[in-house]
Amino acid sequence: MTDALLGVYNRAPLTVSHGQGSWLFDVDGRRYLDCVAGIATDALGHANPVLVKALAEQAAKLWHVSNIFRIPGQEALAERLTGASFADVVFFGNSGSEAVEGALKTARRYHFANGQPERIDVIGFAGSFHGRTYAAINAAGNPSYVEGFGPRLPGYVQLTIDDEAGIAEAIARPTTAALIVEPVQGEGGARALTGEWLKRVRDLCTQHGVLLIYDEVQSGMGRTGKLFAHQWFEGVEPDIMAIAKALGGGFPIGAFLATREAAKGMVAGVHGSTFGGNPLAMAVGIAAFDEIAKLETLSHVQAIAALLKSELQALAARNPDIVSEIRGKGLLIGLKLIPNNRDFMALARDHDLLVAGGGENCVRLLPSLLLSEAEALEAVKRLELACGTARERLAKAA
Ligand SMILES: *Cc1c(COP(=O)(O)O)cnc(C)c1O
């Protein structure tokens, strides 16, 4: 392995050669069942022919033009996204962090446009993940992501999800601009917020003129069996929402969506991107959207998620010394473990199953939305084998 790469990743000793659907092949031809899917990104599986075709056709026509020109693909994808959500307008970037960054800028600009530039504070929550830019790390406040990067930015307030009184008090402050939260916390360990929690926060934000921002970078685009996770609940729509990951089915795209009112400060010249919304990304994004937003895809996700939930709960009941809880929503699934989650990921890999890590000692399953029933059962079988190996290890260590 070269030392020419910055060492910021804990990489598994696995070199992927290619993928097909829910399967990845390493350079030695070994085949893995992929329940990581690029961390909820390859939502339609690997080498999906619909996406391959969209990319190849666009690649032969036009890759990139500046946003100083009209880009028809952006208009088409924005129409789809606004047609399927609370939003009126969309801005395209290239990543989840950029989407979050734009969402936060939009919120502050809204209050500026309203003649209240003092409203800058953003409420964020412990256990959140919003990406790696300065705004994103300050909004999430994870100590290990902010340490050593200079002073914390002003205007960020950190609370815990369970601190009802603190949340109400912070929303009511005259300097509060926005509240940002993931309806299902992803990296934090697949923690799904309840409809009651979201409704209470929505109502408080409305009452005090605070903008509600959802980070659906991981939970959005079909992951939970609705196009967006918050759509499981009535009356909880946000003012602004960040999405990315599955939006491009593996091609880098991010976007933030907003109501026209919330976006009113974002006028010509105040924000932009060189690559954001380029024709290649839009061609794949449109193809991915049309596949994911299909009723049959979303109902497939709901069915496979229900199957996995009951199978995994049975697995947890059979292995109470290894798995303490099954959590999450849809195909954003967390297994809270008793043995170390990083060790368990390696054991799963030994059984040709790829799973992702997560907070609170979880491993996450974030498979392709097209995972078949047979593949779902195969994943459970391999997890059971990994539980067996984990038990042997624990016995040996004792
Ligand atoms: C992955 C993720 C991000 C950051 O996305 P990048 O594309 O890595 O910048 C932000 N928010 C959530 C909820 C995520 O899961």
TrEMBL record:
It comes from the Bacteria. GO terms for cellular component: cytoplasm. Pathway: Amino-acid biosynthesis; L-arginine biosynthesis; N(2)-acetyl-L-ornithine from L-glutamate: step 4/4. It is found in: Cytoplasm. Pfam families: Aminotran_3. One of its GO terms (molecular function) is pyridoxal phosphate binding. Its EC number is 2.6.1.11. It is an enzyme of class 2 (transferase). Binds 1 pyridoxal phosphate per subunit. Keywords: Amino-acid biosynthesis, Aminotransferase, Arginine biosynthesis, Cytoplasm, Pyridoxal phosphate, Transferase. Its main location: cytoplasm. The modification N6-(pyridoxal phosphate)lysine is found at residue 245. N(2)-acetyl-L-ornithine binds at residues 132, 273. Its cofactor is pyridoxal 5'-phosphate. One of its GO terms (biological process) is L-arginine biosynthetic process. It catalyses: N(2)-acetyl-L-ornithine + 2-oxoglutarate = N-acetyl-L-glutamate 5-semialdehyde + L-glutamate. The keyword Cytoplasm applies. Pyridoxal 5'-phosphate binds at residues 129, 215-218, 274. Belongs to the class-III pyridoxal-phosphate-dependent aminotransferase family. ArgD subfamily. Homodimer. HAMAP family: ArgD_aminotrans_3. May also have succinyldiaminopimelate aminotransferase activity, thus carrying out the corresponding step in lysine biosynthesis. This is Acetylornithine aminotransferase. It comes from Sandaracinobacter neustonicus. The gene is argD.
